[in-house]
Design brief:
Layout lengths: L1 H17 L1 E9 L9 E6 L5 E3 L5 E7 L2 E8 L6 E7 L5 E7 L20 H9 L5 E4 H6 L15 E4 L2 E4 L6 E5 L17 E7 L27 E7 L9 E3 L1
């Protein structure tokens, strides 16, 4: 019996020793600490996240050996990312330097028809009290979502199915736009909430503003019928998926 207890104790100690730790700091480009920045473990799978303290410091422990994709983000800054390999429980220290985003929402002049292809148009439609659902960067960040589909869980008229947002009204279909245009090689659909600076949602085709009304038909042929869809328009920062800005100690 004593031998079994001893063996179990040795196995437990070995397991504890094998666990690794990633710690470090999040700063701005002037090396000033950023408090309340979110540091997220994206791979092997999204799930764990911590926040920095007043000194910009974070700790993620209890990690098994392997390779981890870690992201750091904070409202008003571009996301930074680092890929870190942990072996035999060895701790790693990494410093994320976040680049500040330029102020994208200048004073908005509300006109009869808002701009179609820039984030100023998003703010203009929101200021006009449009019949859509609007999430700005602050609202997106406040949800602490790790994946984009999680942003839609509490939006009336939407359901999340197979990690996609689907309409529950009308023809139950939605057209996806990115920065006011159909997605394409140079205008790709965002992968993560941290890629977004705004979302506008129009579930009822009749509520779609005039600048996007021609997108309510999924194809040209369907314009001959009454088959129309709502729209989800994603606004991205226009920068790469994440900004390089990490260094290891």
């Amino acid at each position: 019996m004593m031998r079994r207890v001893l063996c179990a104790g040795l196995l437990l100690a070995s397991s504890v020793r094998a666990q690794g730790r990633i710690s470090g700091f999040v700063t701005d480009s002037a090396h000033r600490p950023l408090a309340n920045a979110e540091v997220i473990v994206m791979e092997p799978r999204p799930g764990r996240s911590v926040r920095t303290d007043s000194a910009g410091q974070f700790v993620i422990d209890g990690l098994a050996p392997g390779t981890y994709n870690i992201r750091a983000r904070r409202l008003g800054f571009y996301v930074a990312q680092s890929r870190i390999a942990l072996t035999n429980g060895q701790p790693k220290i990494v410093i994320f330097e976040l680049l500040a985003r330029p102020q994208v929402l200048a004073p908005i002049e509300v006109t009869a028809k808002c701009v179609r292809w820039t984030i100023e148009g998003f703010a203009c439609r929101q200021a006009k009290g449009g019949r859509g659902v609007f999430m700005d960067e602050e609202a997106i960040d406040a949800k602490h979502a790790l994946e984009i589909h999680e942003l839609f869980r509490d939006v009336p008229g939407l359901r999340v199915e197979d990690r996609e947002a689907r309409s529950k009204v009308g023809w139950r279909c939605t057209q996806t736009l990115v920065n006011g245009k159909l997605p394409g090689p140079s205008n790709q659909r965002p992968n993560w909430p941290s890629d977004l600076i705004g979302i506008e949602i129009y579930l009822n085709p009749d509520s779609v503003p005039g600048e996007y009304s021609h997108f309510v038909w999924m194809t040209e042929e369907k314009k001959k019928t009454s088959y129309r869809c709502g729209i989800i328009n994603y606004w991205t920062s226009g920068r790469p998926r994440y900004a390089a800005g990490t260094r290891k100690k």
